[in-house]
Amino acid sequence: MNELKGLGTALITPFDANGKVDYEALERLLETQLKGFVDYIVVLGTTGEAATMTEDEKKEVRTFIREYVHGRLPLVLGVGGNNTAAVCESLRTIDLSGFAAILSVCPYYNKPNQEGLYQHFCKVAEASPIPVILYNVPGRTGVNLLPETVMRIHEAHPDKIVGIKEASGNIAQIKDLIALAKAQFTINNSQLPFLVISGDDGIACEIMEAGGAGLISVASNAFAEDFWHIVHDKDRALQAKYEEMVRLLFAEGNPVGIKAVLAQKGIIQNYLRLPLVPASEELKERISGLVD
User: Fold this and answer.
1) What is the C-alpha R_g of the chain?
2) CA distances for 274 relative to 4, 19, 49, 52, 257, angstroms
3) Is the pLDDT of residue 249 over 70?
4) Rounded to an integer, what distance in angstroms lies between the CA atom of residue 37 and that of residue 229?
5) Do residues 239 and 204 touch, judged by C-beta distance below 8 A?
6) Which residues does the annotation mark as catalytic?
7) Which tens digits make up the pLDDT trace of 145-200?
8) What does the angle CA 116 – CA 138 – CA 98 come to, to the nearest 5 degrees?
9) What is the pTM of this model?
10) Ramachandran angles phi, psi of 43, nearest 5°
11) Alpha-carbon gap, residue 101 to 133, rounded angstroms
12) Stretch 248-261: mean pLDDT, rounded?
């Protein structure tokens, strides 16, 4: 899965004043991503507000992006939820042609234990016709997918469970996972090295230096070139330059901050779907002072 190493953008979904998907803005955004500083795109993940979209809307968006990108970059599709049977049914029925992998978040709200997480993702692996990247984000889901469980899932389905987007923010835990993945790769001589991908813009260099495979970024919606260098060059000075911006991007929730930035750049209109609302005037002003 070398095509999913490096910088991936967790793409936002632009909306217009009527709450509809703004496809003209989506074209403008995709063009910024196709300029050579993004290695792949994640479609309809958390940042894409997929949780507030209908199945018909999601189908239209993934079809539009797949046809517009037309193989110029690998695509990853967000497919997850807290109903295992429903997630598996989606994986069996939706058209996944043109997508390199799916990104599947830990079940939220139910708060399953480690055994429940293991069994959930084994079912996802069995149902998915393409590779699966796990997504651990305890701040949103209320559960933490531990390194030992991650590797247990991978061992059960080594050709299907190919990596994880790790957004726990716990650097020690992520380093432990990288060490376990390296040990398993050495022992099994696997042909599919397990990818540990940072889900936090602010610690990309640390994860890359520890042996991580890259970053799935929110900030790269607006700052693709700089974040490409942060990931590929392990540029700590450049990462430090963005420390305050990254903090502001998440100060009022995601994708509130990044949509404010993109609107300021003239790429999208600044609309979100409830229960999310646009950035406060104070936050927009603080972001404005950092945008070139």
Assistant:
1) 18
2) 32, 10, 10, 8, 15
3) yes
4) 9
5) yes
6) 135, 165
7) 999 999 999 999 999 999 999 999 999 999 999 999 988 776 665 544 799 999 99
8) 80
9) 0.96
10) -105, 135
11) 7
12) 98
